[in-house]
Amino acid sequence: MPLSVQAGYAPTMADRALLLASMMAVTAAPAMAERAPRATLVHCGADTCLRLSGHRERVAIAVRVDGRDLAVEGGRAWWMTVPLSVARTWPIARGDRLDVTLADAGKERRMTVLLPPGALGARLELASLVISAH
């Protein structure tokens, strides 16, 4: 028998719902703040652009690439879109990753964004492509 029933108290559905909601709120908040930023390719007019998006604990936290503040939209859930020609000027870490820094009152947290394959690489025109099976 559960302890609450032995003590003469049976929790109501409202009590259970409140307990469940409290547990979810406590565990979900850090998970949202810790999600890594994402990078996707989107169309912007006739060009292709890179969209970065992520989450921050507060709106006052600055989002930076290469030490420069980015003009992001949104609140705690932020996003920004830049043409690939601009994104290609950013320093790329390990070829397929971009370091994004979240800066707040002297504290900085560096996060790595996985870039879409070939997104910031140079274009290479192929005359032919040979694929062989082993």
Outline the fold blueprint:
Elements: H1 3-6, H2 13-34, E1 38-44, E2 47-55, E3 62-65, E4 68-69, E5 73-74, E6 77-83, H3 84-87, E7 97-104, E8 107-114
Antiparallel strand pairs: 1-2, 2-6, 3-4, 3-7, 5-6, 7-8
Helix content: 10-25%
What structural class results from the helix and strand content? alpha+beta
- Radius of gyration, rounded? 23 Å
Cα-to-Cα separation, first versus last residue: 64 Å
The succession of helices and strands, N to C, reads HHEEEEEEHEE
The strand count comes to 8
Helix count?
3
Instruction: Report the average pLDDT across residues.
Output: 78
Give a quick account of the main beta sheet: strands, pairing sense, barrel closure: 4 strands, antiparallel
Strand order of the largest sheet: 1-2-6-5
- Beta-strand fraction estimate: 35-45%
Query: Poorly predicted ranges (pLDDT <50, ≥5 residues)?
Result: 26-33
The shape, in one word, is: extended
Describe this structure in words.
The chain has helices at about 5, 15-35, 85; strands at about 40-45, 45-55, 60-65, 70, 75, 75-85, 95-105, 105-115. By secondary structure, it is an alpha+beta fold. The strands form 2 sheets. A 4-stranded antiparallel beta sheet has the order 1-2-6-5. About 10% of the residues are buried. The model is unreliable at about 25-35 (pLDDT under 50).
